[in-house]
Design goal:
2 domains; alpha/beta; 389 residues; three-stranded antiparallel β-sheet; homodimer; TIM Barrel; 16 strands
Chain lengths: 389, 389
């Protein structure tokens, strides 16, 4: 059986529906992966994550390497057993975290030296060790170690990072030995179409199980992000899954699928939930707003999540005002249910040849956070992420 | 049907087993009530609380009066509907909170004026309004407004507070009109046997549905607490339930039952859970301790709670180290399961005439937090409680 089965491509545009065949079950695509960096999807039990409908989550090699350590996870039976999750797990290689969270990093062709954002201890990781760590964790899908550029870097800087990413990708490919574990390459190249083309071509030549788009949604305007997707996905092999890293607002999921993406991960739905921002078909609502103080109906009456089936918007408002921990759980359940149900509807629409109608309908009613607010929130988040994730 | 059915009294000592017949179901006694001051048992959904086995919880009039307001709860269908709890609810009158949380209180025979610990707003409560508030909330069991002494008060101070408690108890009794709601009196009198006797006699003459012991476990040595119980419970009518307010460490539950108590509430099991202190048959264990870093077995291998069935002690240790919110949930589930199972075993032992053996066996193995640590923890907690509860 091939690793990925492409079941359907939309008659117009690039949207696709398929299936990933992992060692821990089949995953329907397009798929959103909830983020469980530290071996927990924040606030939820594995049963709850499963109950919402997810069977593939993301965990983070960088975080687990620092705490509790990959050896500890292995001694406790591997990541699935450790966190009591019997679905599939994709592990990020940690490249992005090393470049965004860890202070004092020094980069050489051999690998990267950095200090832990937790306790300041010094560490050295190479492409080979990162593959070894992910094999030891027991991930179903592993990622190569890449070098991330920052939005605003010059073409020369982005090119240098891309070329090192390519050399590291080759080494990861050679180091990878576990046949039950998929390995994805990561296309870099920033906002430069020619670099993206070179990166896609080079990585494709290494024949990975799937291809991720890295260095996207790192502060660039949304137009630029969509443009980059539009030129990159057509360069990737049709028969392999395509994964857009770090993207996950509802409108971006629709836009990403329309541009040929099969997999997404993002901390946004769970992070904003804990801040009281709840998804509805018309956009985000801030449950702390006084408008919800006496609202007897749930935040989204059409939603079938545990939160909306049991609690009024007023009760959620009360929990947030009192900073009760249950608030963060109920909001997380709601937002992840919203995202899961959006992805399920998207997939069904692709299968029914009605994706472009569903996408247009969704985007017509869903009011995204405005661009200025979005960028300033993103910037704030990038700054304090060390504490949060 | 009487409000309370006494089913069995232990052949030796005072331990009793019975049933409370509330408007939201029958509750087996002796019973521990989890604390849900702000209309949520901290970190848990109502389904989880029910799933552990509880069908009676405590909520707090003082907290709900300030946030979201009793009128808001009423507008949203009453407290049961508001928090989606279909079991029974006992509401504390708020007396204890006014005297311990609220700054700037002024006491007169008419009632008590105080400032909110949340926003500094001024409020005036009387015995009559407190009864009205609890009827509006829709509690199954309501409590009279009492005046709480502080440990260390002189006999004259304690007597004055007790006499006012008695006058207020009479007014509460008259004000109470909802036949589906039970009303309990609160015996005061501090550590003075003669005052406890007077208080028990006076309140018994008013014929309440049950009797609480107030002003206990407020900083006095454990010996004094047990002595006070020993002289007070025999003064209360046998056919009415007896409720020891604010007590709930495992060893105190055993000691309390042995002295004739039927009902308990305490934030301790859930509060210490959030600090990483987990109950085992041998005493509390601090899960942050390095001894648990690699422990593959659950914190208590004999425990059947969700936490122990699914997760290693090492995983809990990791979650606490990372300050992941799931840590507080899993620890709360464990501690409440421990307490529920202890109470169930106690009740079974009373029914089987083996309570004194069970009590002795439990106390022989369970190492309580030592007295000095306990008192200093209590003091610290009393000081910062404003933020916590």
């Amino acid at each position: 059986m091939p690793y990925f089965s492409l079941l359907k491509t939309a008659p117009k545009g690039q949207a696709r529906a398929g299936e990933l065949h992992t060692a821990h079950g089949t995953v329907a695509t397009p798929v959103f992966m909830p983020v469980g960096s530290q071996a927990t999807v924040k606030t939820l039990t594995p049963d709850e994550v499963k109950g919402i409908g997810f069977n593939l989550i993301l965990a983070n090699t960088y975080h687990l390497y620092l705490r509790p350590s990959v050896d500890t996870v292995a001694a406790l039976g591997g990541l699935h057993r450790f966190m009591a999750w019997d679905g599939a797990i994709l592990t990020d290689s940690g490249g992005y975290q090393v470049f965004s969270l860890a202070p004092l990093r020094r980069l050489s062709d051999e690998g990267v030296t950095f200090r832990s954002h937790v306790d300041g201890s010094e560490h050295f990781l190479t492409p080979e060790t990162v593959i070894q760590l992910q094999e030891t964790l027991g991930a179903d899908i592993s990622m190569v170690l890449d070098v991330c550029s920052t939005y605003g870097d010059s073409r020369a800087q982005v090119e240098e990072a891309m070329l090192r990413t390519h050399r590291w990708a080759e080494r990861c490919r050679r180091a990878h030995s576990k046949s039950s574990q998929a390995l994805f390459g990561i296309v870099q190249g920033g906002v430069f179409p020619e670099l993206r083309r070179q990166s896609a071509e080079f990585l494709t030549s290494l024949d990975f199980d799937g291809y991720a788009l890295g260095g996207i949604s790192i502060g660039e305007p949304k137009e630029t992000m969509l443009k980059t997707l539009e030129i990159t996905t057509p360069l990737l092999p049709e028969e392999k899954p395509r994964y857009l890293m770090g993207v996950g607002s509802p409108e971006d999921l629709v836009e990403g699928v329309a541009r040929g993406i099969d997999m997404f991960d993002c901390a946004l739905p769970t992070r904003v939930a804990r801040n009281g921002a709840l998804f509805t078909s018309k956009g985000r609502r801030n449950i702390r707003n006084a408008a919800f103080r006496l609202m007897e109906r749930p935040i989204d009456p059409r939603c079938r999540c545990y939160t909306c089936r049991n609690f009024s918007a007023a009760y959620l408002h009360h929990l947030f005002k009192c900073e009760e921990l249950l608030a963060y759980r109920l909001a997380t359940i709601h937002n992840l249910t919203f995202i899961h149900s959006l992805m399920r509807n998207i997939r069904q629409a692709i299968m029914d040849d009605s994706f472009s109608e569903l996408g247009a309908e969704f985007l017509a009613h869903y009011l995204p956070t405005d661009e200025a607010t979005r960028l300033s929130q993103k910037e704030k988040w990038l700054k304090r992420r060390g504490q949060e994730q």
